[in-house]
Write a structure and sequence with these properties.
This protein is 32% helix and 21% strand. It has 10 helices and 8 strands.
Length: 275
């Protein structure tokens, strides 16, 4: 099982290294973001950041599925950690909310994404934003560092989601909270989609049942769980035809929506006093 998990991580890492090395108009097809003419599915999951203060277009690779920083209740002076920070998009929005008194740490296991994010931060002369290479299942962060954790369409890519959320719990201070956007499913997906590496790296094939996802969060020790936003994800036929026959596409499209983007909020409880 561990070897299989490592294979998945390496496949996802290579995919996002490749995206980081390309300019936005040339990004390859991905369910989380693509600008390829053959698919024309640039924004099937990503949401529009342009209305958010602190947004910098050069850091937006259109790879998300929500706007977690919009819902994250970040205050001035907070320490915010972004898991799967990419080119720095959510970090820079979070930095606007924390102000110069706060701190933002972006973590990504793609060295090329980290390199791109650091270049963007240097251009913007942000001294309170840093980027670290690391695995979400074993975060390079000390216990109780963060006031707020955000993440955008990344946790579903992690093979051991329970370990990932236990790490979120560890790095949050007591009373801290997270706001995470992710992909979940409410019904079975065709086997041909779930077995496709491209669809895994594109955030669809790796999604788990919504009830299981929320149960993992609760078992990790979080309270006051709230679904802040939910939207159906429609995978266009330009993508489906790469994996399914016409008959299978017809059958798939006749089903109710089974893929959703959700933004989830939860809090790490404060310790109760001793007896």
């Amino acid at each position: 099982m561990k070897e299989h998990h490592n294979e998945i991580k390496e496949m996802v890492k290579q995919k996002y290294d490749q995206i980081a090395l390309q300019d936005l108009p040339a990004q390859p097809a991905s369910c989380c973001g693509s600008n390829g003419e053959e698919t024309k599915v640039y924004n099937i999951m990503s949401e529009e950041y342009t209305s958010l203060k602190g947004y910098h277009p050069e850091a937006d690779l259109k790879l998300g599925c929500g706007l977690p920083t919009e819902f994250a209740r970040i205050k001035k002076g907070d320490t915010v950690i972004d898991l799967g920070s990419g080119a720095g998009n959510d970090c820079f929005v979070a930095r606007h909310e924390t102000g110069e008194a706060g701190k933002v740490i972006g973590i990504d296991f793609s060295e090329e994404m980290i390199r791109k994010a650091r270049i963007n931060a240097d251009k913007l002369r942000f001294n309170n934003v840093e980027f670290r290479t690391g695995d979400i299942e074993d975060l390079p962060v000390a216990d109780q560092t963060a006031d707020v954790v955000v993440s955008n369409c990344v946790m579903n890519l992690v093979p051991d989601k329970a370990k990932a959320f236990s790490e979120v719990h560890r790095i949050l201070r007591e009373g801290g909270h997270f706001s995470i956007s992710d992909i979940v499913i409410t019904g079975d997906l065709p086997a041909k989609i779930k077995s496709a590496a491209e669809m895994y790296a594109g955030c669809v094939a790796s999604a788990i049942y919504k009830k299981d996802y929320l149960e993992i969060i609760e078992k990790s020790g979080f309270d006051n769980l709230i679904i802040q936003k939910k939207k159906p994800i429609v995978v266009p036929e330009e993508i489906l035809k790469n994996y399914l026959s016409e008959e299978e596409i017809t059958a798939y499209n006749q089903q109710d929506h089974r893929i959703f983007s959700i933004t989830v909020y939860a809090e790490k409880p404060r310790a109760t006093c001793c007896g």
